[in-house]
Write a structure and sequence with these properties.
Largest sheet: none
Number of strands: 0
Structural class: mainly alpha
Mean pLDDT: 89
Order of helices and strands: HHHHHH
Number of helices: 6
Distance between the termini: 30 Å
Length: about 130
């Protein structure tokens, strides 16, 4: 699947915020939001989170099959397509560890796809006058 750099960045950032929110006690109790947690991190801390998730997600997102995406919608894939792509990119793990990695990465890829912004129509782009 061909994603823009902006789409991949938003997908990774969305997944990172969700992963951190699940791990943070204050977010779970509703004392602060995932965005506030994300903003409280330093640049290097954000980089480490994005780097770790990028190694797991980017190869899978790029390897997803090409689908037609209408303007105003997000790309959608079946569970079978996502699972097959994740299995293809999974390393040489075997047994229970492989099954756990497969389940976790499929969930991360689904979350990344939910975080993608709707596609814009390239013909309808309006450039502001100040540019």
């Amino acid at each position: 699947m061909r994603f823009t750099e902006h789409e991949l960045t938003l997908a990774l950032t969305g997944v990172a915020k969700n992963v951190l929110a699940v791990q943070d006690k204050q977010v779970r109790k509703g004392r602060r939001t995932a965005d506030e947690l994300w903003e409280s991190l330093g640049r290097y801390e954000r980089f480490k989170v994005l780097d770790g998730l990028g190694d797991q997600l980017l190869p899978v997102l790029v390897a997803l099959p090409d689908v037609e995406v209408e303007a105003g919608t997000r790309p959608s894939f079946t569970d079978e397509q996502i699972t097959a792509t994740v299995e293809e990119k999974l390393g040489g793990e075997k047994g229970l560890r492989r099954k756990a990695l497969l389940t976790a990465r499929v969930a991360l890829v689904k979350l990344a796809l939910e975080c993608l912004p709707p596609r814009q129509d390239p013909d309808a782009l309006i450039v502001p006058d100040h540019l």
